[in-house]
Amino acid sequence: MKKILIVDDDPNILDYMTSLLEDNGYRTFTALDVREGLEIAKKEIPDLITLDLEMPDEWGPRFYRKMSQEKSLKNIPIIVISGLSGGDHAVGKAVAFLSKPFDRDELLKIVKETLHV
Amino acid sequence: MSDAILIIDQDTSHARALGIYLERKRVENHMASAPEEAMVLFGKIGAQIVLADPGFPDTVVVALLKRIKCAHPRVQIIIMTPPDQFDQAMAKLKSDAVHYLLKPVKSTALDMALYQARSWISLKRRFESTEKKYKALRHTQNLYQQLFDEVPCYISVQDNSFRLTATNKMFKRDFGDEIGSHCYAVYKHRGSRCSQCPVADTFADGNSHSTEEVVTSQSGRQRHVLTWTAPIRNGEDEITQVMEMSTDITEIRQLQDHLTSLGLMIGSMSHGVKGMLTALDGGIYQLETGLAKNDEVRTHRAFGQVKEMAARIRKMVLEILHYAKSRELRYQSIDISEMADEVVGDAMAIASKHGVELKANISPDLGLIDVDPTWLQAALVNFMENAIDACIYDRSKQEHIVTFDAFDLAAGQICFIITDNGLGMDRETREKMFTLFFTSKGSQGTGLGLFIANQVIQQHGGSITVESEPKQGSRFHICLPRTKNDPSRLAPAGGQNTTGVKNEIDDKK
């Protein structure tokens, strides 16, 4: 079962994405901030990460930078899911950029394509 | 006055001899043998030095000399007298004469006496001119001091360790007479210098710098100020001090805030709105799939989530409406205990969801209060939600508790105390927490919640006191007059609303 790490500061959105992704056959982990996200990523080595950009304390792009410095993590694909407009370039190597509120079919399609290439 | 010398001597041949001597030295001189003649001549030639033999036993000349000295203190009198009258002359004229010579006068003694008299006159002239300049200087200094004091700005002069060395009247009025204290302590109640400091910049480059700051006066009132700095240099052109001039732009800011805020608000809240809509989508998804799978737990949870999101969106829309339109309060007499119960009920849903314990202690018979119930309740719920959020965001403790006390004070006031053991606030957050669009909750906050809650309490004539310590938690003490016409509603300007702020929370939502 493919593992997906969801990083978002809103517990309601974590709840939503967990249900959505688990209903579609993925295993999920959640993190409310950058620090927690990195910890779980190192431990679980997920197959995909979804990342919010605007979070208290540390921003999503910092998560991406720190992650890129870890050998074991740097090739994990990232989908940015954010309420910020024009954030497309904040995480250069993201496989996709979804704007909140996102279309769940589109998310599932991108996840599927990313994980089954 | 001329440099001429008036010689008064009844002994005309002696006088003439002196005159010839002086003439040879190119000193203008005039002679008089009788007092009347001397008086007329003195007025005519404007002599500065009078060389006189009193001619005892007659005292007419002595009287004349005293009159001259009294009317013209600068005139120098040199007495020449026969040896037997020397003591008498001194006894009569004392210090009215600058020198006493024995007759017949020796030329060297005369030269020396004249030299001394002239030196004295020139000293006196210099002294008078210096005195005049000093007066002018003092006048100018007074003028500048008045300007410094009366300028309707806060002016301070600071040394390179940011200590105040001079402050003007307005500064002293609002911030106290704090010579020697640090600027950052007086203006911002900080323990160290601000990271962005225009004074430091001016010390570094000698240029004028400008910043906009929020400062807190002695009474706790917050002021928005526009600050300009200017270097003060010493004789060697080194910057020894910097002057800082701060103009109070609080009112302009308030106006501007209102004018520009609508557009800003949409920008600053769009992220929060998007998050809420996404979470609402989530609730709907869970509800749909819960129903489809006949999963009662999921359906139930989803319903709670949809409800919470609807409430959050409703609240945000209400805040925007409130902010967009300054509205009059619609007073009603309502039962306080009932309203307090409702506030706790609203907060309970969120608290229990996040495992935060909520303890309410509401006196049962608080009676009636005149308030706008819609807005007061919204404000109180906002304080409660902030307290709960402060707990949710605090990962340093496992057990979190929020308490809500409602009680009455004998003074016809109803008080609410809301405490939490969550994140707490540092001084800066405390001071900014009621500021429009300030939030410490990232995308979850709009920066409107506490701003409006504070405004609502203020409009009701109430006061808010806040105590908070980082990592310890916060305590909001809110007091409201029970009746609308209570004179205590006419709270003094800068009343306690933001005044008593000893700590802060975030005004998130």
Summarize the structure.
The complex is a heterodimer of chains A (about 120) and B (about 500). Chain A has about 120 residues and is α/β, with parallel strands linked by helices.
What does this entry look like structurally?
With 117 residues, chain A is an alpha/beta fold. Chain A has one domain: Response regulator (Rossmann fold, 3-Layer(aba) Sandwich), CATH 3.40.50.2300. In chain A, 39% of the residues lie in helices and 20% in strands. Chain A has a five-stranded parallel beta sheet, with helices on both faces. The mean pLDDT of chain A is 88. Chain B is rod-shaped. Residues 487-509 of chain B have low confidence and may be disordered.
Shape descriptor of chain B: rod-shaped
**Mean pLDDT metric of chain B:** 85
Helix and strand element order of chain A: EHEHEHEEH
Write down the overall mean pLDDT of chain A.
88
- Counting DSSP H or I runs of 4 or more residues, the number of helices of chain A is 4
Structural domains of chain A: how many: 1
Q: From the 3D structure, determine the CATH topology of the largest domain in chain B.
A: Heat Shock Protein 90
SSE-based structural type of chain B = alpha/beta
Low-confidence stretches of chain B: 487-509
Number of helices of chain B: 15
Compute the separation of the termini of chain B in Å.
Answer: 86 Å
Radius of gyration of chain B: 43 Å
How large is the radius of gyration of chain A?
Answer: 13 Å
Strand order of the largest sheet of chain B: 12-14-15-17-16-18
